[in-house]
Amino acid sequence: MADRKTLSFADDRDGDDSLMALVANGDGQAYEIVVNAHLGRVVAVGRKMLGNPAAADDLAQDVMLKLWHHAPKWQPGRARISTWLYRVTSNLAIDRIRANRTSQLDEDWDMPEQATQLQGLEEQALKQRVDRALQDLPERQRLALVLFHYQGLTMGETAEAMDSSVEAVQSLLARARATLKKMLVREWRSLLPDPVD
């Protein structure tokens, strides 16, 4: 049991490899450690990519199931668990986006509006507009933004998770930022302070 406790806090490839070896042998506790450590980030990527909490939860369940089934094929030293999960999450999300282009729903489509002050409503409207603009980006650009800005991965980690080069990710990010800037120009101007006369 001490080994599992040590493994649960491992922050290197050796720790990941040891955990995956236990998972491959059917160790439910090791699998639980992996799920607890990574599920939140998988769901967060799913929400940003799909724009729907229920779809993100379904995606996360599928990703974690794939991890369980993939464990016997795990190649030690090849990847981190987090990188592998980001890649699988990204690929499944893109597949679902392509399959459901016409039926994407707004993130809070079924949530009742709560009585809030005007500023809260304006902030919520701005967040929804930014989320809609994010959903309108091409999948690879959206994925680069989600991993780099929302998940806080480094450029190298983002490139590895996307199975791409750092230069390609930089290009995707530049194009995504430029597109978002054009799409959100009105919102951007409203955030600037009023000019002094």
The biggest beta sheet is recorded as:
none
Alpha carbon gap, first and last residue:
69 Å
* Full CATH superfamily name of the largest domain: RNA polymerase sigma factor, region 2, helix turn helix motif
Helix proportion: over 70%
Structural class: mainly alpha
Contiguous runs where pLDDT drops below 50 for at least 5 residues: 1-11, 102-109, 112-116
Average pLDDT, rounded to a whole number, is 80
Q: How many strands? A: 0
Count of distinct structural domains? 2
CATH hierarchy class name of the largest domain: Mainly Alpha
CATH architecture of the largest domain: Orthogonal Bundle
Q: Which fold name is given in CATH as the topology of the largest domain?
A: Rna Polymerase Sigma Factor, Chain: A
The count of helical stretches stands at: 10
**What oligomerization state is this entry in?**
single chain
Reading the helices and strands in chain order gives HHHHHHHHHH
Pick out its properties.
Arc Repressor Mutant, subunit A; Rna Polymerase Sigma Factor, Chain: A; mainly alpha
